Amino acid sequence: MSFAKAIKRWVVLALVVALLAGLPLAAQAASNYYCNANRVNLREGPSSSYKSLAKLSKGAVVTYVSQSNGWYKVKYYKKSTDKVVTGYVYRKYLSSVSNSTSSGRSKSKSSISVSNHYKTTVNLRVRSQPSVEKGYVRTKLKAGTKVAVMKQKGSWVFITYKGGSGWVSAKYLKKVK
Fold first, then answer.
1. Which of 13, 89, 104, 156 is deepest in the core (most CB within 10 A)?
2. In what order do the strands lie in the sheet with 156-161?
3. Is residue 108 part of a domain?
4. Are residues 82 and 127 in the same domain?
């Protein structure tokens, strides 16, 4: 059996097990949520006994990864360290984000939605800050690289991609299905 067929079988088996366990995979696989309370702990593990990695403010946007006993494993951009942190938040402190905006405000023409479904349209520099004058170039991404948009600041968006995160101009991203 080829490697690709073996992987395919494992994926199908995992989906069947998840469906039998009642996990809502399709609706949450690439969902974004916002924190609906202030000073909510992002924890190392799925329990209040784990150490806090960050305090989420009301309105903070996180990206769903998985769930465990009412706790959601999520990715969160921690501004103080300029890194994306993966941790756990108790489900009752999260609400769904509309695909139109990440903050509940009306979407302007220059807005880009918080989503895991974008690709770069050109070879693109990923920057440490949302500016060409400040900060530094972290890396370069090839055209067609899949990225996730975490938040927007003016015409700049903070993205995550396989291997890192940083700021890029929103005009060089294209939404894909």
1. 89
2. 137-141, 124-127, 164-169, 156-161, 146-153, 115-120, 173-175
3. no
4. no
SS3 track for 97-135: CCCCCCCCCCCCCCCCCCEEEEEECCCEEEECCCCCCCC
CA 154, chain centre distance (Å): 19
Q: What is the pLDDT of residues 141-155, one digit of tens each?
A: 999 998 888 888 888
Within a domain: 102: no
Tell me which residue of 140, 144, 176, 145 sits closest to 162, measured CA to CA.
Answer: 145
Domain range enclosing 124: 115-175
- Token pair 């972290």 is found at 138
Report the distance separating Cα 33 and Cα 23, nearest Å. Answer: 17
Total tally of structural domains belonging to the chain: 2
Q: What is the CATH number of the domain that holds 31?
A: 2.30.30.40
The answer to whether residue 18 scores a pLDDT higher than 50 is no
